[in-house]
């Protein structure tokens, strides 16, 4: 079984080196046939399926759900690199001149991003003075728990990251007491600790020289790399015609190996007609 490695930023219990197997057609089908399954759960299922080891240990059930949001994004971007190559172009629209801008992305640079701080204590400015907080980082499990709460999702996510909260008088209070005017500052603090949780790309427009930021969504990028349902099952059809293998056998192949077999079949005319 072919595999590759990714170094996480936080990992689990000081275990940061992750071994993943190469994605197969079954993993591709998970994305193209997801139906109404929310993206966060697709990502969780994919990580559960692909991760072979963290450190020297095979992860136990639910352990991978404790990976931080940024570490999950690292895994997605590493998978994108396996499928798209070391670099790709992100196509965005300049908010100033409305022209299309192609932004070159190097996956290695993104995956190696480091935090701006390691201090999990912070001071938050509120209308009644300075509040203090101690935080933990949001995980896949937290994302799934806050899923479906609508406008409350972001607020519940922030509250779940508070391990201690002190008001302007220094009194310990419940995390639900977090002032609304502290939410944005707390979100920035969490992002400084786990930068890929929201991957921001700085862009300078070559048309009007405007500078702006855009977000890179690992899920959307990976979904594009996996392609459409018609492309996947078109490959299955051609492989079945050429080699007389079952759908299950074809989908079990690593994507790179399937591409090799399809190229051979195309070169010999076996996959035509």
Describe the 3D structure:
This protein is α+β, with helices and mostly antiparallel strands and about 270 residues long. It has three domains: about 5-85 and about 215-225; about 120-195, no CATH class; about 230-270, no CATH class. The chain has eleven helices and ten strands. The strands form four sheets. Strands 1-2-3 form a three-stranded antiparallel beta sheet. It is globular. The chain starts with a strand and ends in a 5-residue tail after the last helix. About 25% of the residues are buried. The model has no long low-confidence stretch (mean pLDDT about 95).
Give the count of helical stretches.
Answer: 11
Taking the alpha carbons of the first and last residues, their distance comes to 33 Å
Shape: globular
Proportion of beta-strand residues:
15-25%
- Rounded to an integer in angstroms, the radius of gyration calculated over CA atoms is 22 Å
Low-confidence stretches: none
Quick structural gist:
41% of the residues lie in helices and 24% in strands. It has a three-stranded antiparallel sheet with strand order 1-2-3. The chain has a three-stranded antiparallel sheet with strand order 6-7-8.
List the helices and strands and how they pair.
Elements: E1 3-12, E2 15-21, H1 25-32, H2 39-50, E3 51-54, H3 69-84, E4 87-93, E5 100-106, H4 107-111, E6 121-126, E7 129-135, H5 140-146, H6 152-160, E8 162-166, H7 183-193, E9 199-204, E10 211-216, H8 218-226, H9 229-243, H10 247-251, H11 255-268
Antiparallel strand pairs: 1-2, 2-3, 4-5, 6-7, 7-8, 9-10
Helix pairs in contact: 3-8, 9-11
